[in-house]
């Protein structure tokens, strides 16, 4: 375990107390030195916030109460009730214990994926399987890129205070200080550990790209289910007062035997205010290149929710076709010009064989699916909101299934199950429509004619975005 503060007399008492206050966030002037009850109350409050616990002593788990008692003892010791040398060792031990005690609940098995700022591990949290993400920041150096690991953890926590089944849950977080590197290259770093919900089926990106390489698309009904779940997550993010700004296949994870989709990676997320745009920038632009809204790519001011809805449109397009709609979001790309400038999505899809070719090798898309995409990949002023998208006709079978599942749940409490059965399955809280749902064409999965469609291009990360595909990003 890395050392945070030393337990030798090389550290003065004032230095150790300063470090303690730095981590706990208080100063002696806040409370009179002789007001022990006020100190106790403040320590409980600080501990409660640090451990993300409800602000009620009765709700604090026993280990946290034990730490609180030790902190109260520290207050007594600091005020001269033991010798100074023992006090130095005790304060050092308390600071280390406070910062590392939570890590005892983590177990790490193996690395899942390397990230820009660290690694993601498969492990456990309090005995349950979890993904453990470690992000490293060099202290004293400006943060490179747009992502800030500490900010990401705080935003993720704020978003998941009201849990959504389609957002990866954050169980806990821990901050540590470590000296990393060798010899003269050793640097002081802050490490952010987060225990996250583990999604066993990996990224939606991998799920789609494996089929795309074989020039196969998933059935439209499955694409509809994924799109609906992603939009449900986006609505929850907006409701929390944030925007994601990095929605992509790489940042959607699958679980429950590839039936449930969950959004992850909040490194680019920001708070937003209704109808207040963010300032544009030519060089530092959030998100991945292939998913950025045209207004962001042009360096213009942009409204966060509207930019996220464009990214959702690109994601849905790829779900339906197995390929991105364009490479560059400007008129130098003929596909983008056809799609956005000329407003002719159907021409593009017809040319690629996804509509107007009932006897062709490609799955034919429904009018409802094409209509939804055409209302997302448009200028910001005309773009659908998340509520408009979720209320679109393409999702009518899922809304009906959701209402029926809720009615059955209510009826189950009275011992009566009503309504038609067998047309919809409900799997671990996620809607999983069967292929018997009406309103969708029969899946037509076959190899595409290379002469008809362009080469499949699934997005790699844009280095300028500051993000990198990973299981937890």
How would you summarize what this structure contains?
By secondary structure, the protein is an alpha+beta fold. It has 3 domains: 13-97, no CATH class; 105-196, Phosphorylase Kinase, domain 1, CATH 3.30.200.20; 204-465, Transferase(Phosphotransferase), domain 1, CATH 1.10.510.10.
Structural class: alpha+beta
Over all CA atoms, what is the radius of gyration?
Answer: 26 Å
Low-confidence stretches: 1-17, 23-31, 46-68, 80-92, 419-473
Q: Which strand order does the major sheet show?
A: 1-2-3-5-4
Summed over residues and divided by their number, the pLDDT gives a mean of 74
The number of domains is: 3
The CATH H-level superfamily of the largest domain is: Transferase(Phosphotransferase) domain 1
Portion of residues within helices: 25-40%
Describe the largest sheet.
5 strands, antiparallel
CATH top level assignment of the largest domain = Mainly Alpha
CATH architecture of the largest domain: Orthogonal Bundle
SSE succession: HHHHEEEHEEHHEEEEHHHHHHHEE
Strand content: 5-15%
Number of strands: 11
Helices, by number, come to 14
Straight-line N-to-C gap: 26 Å
Shape: globular
What CATH calls the topology of the largest domain is: Transferase(Phosphotransferase), domain 1
Give keywords.
globular; 37% helix; five-stranded antiparallel sheet; 3 domains; Phosphorylase Kinase, domain 1; Transferase(Phosphotransferase), domain 1
Could you characterize what this model shows?
There is one protein chain. By secondary structure, the chain is α+β, with helices and mostly antiparallel strands. It is built from 14 helices and 11 strands. A 5-stranded antiparallel beta sheet has the order 1-2-3-5-4. Strands 6-9 form a two-stranded antiparallel sheet. It is globular and about 65 Å long.
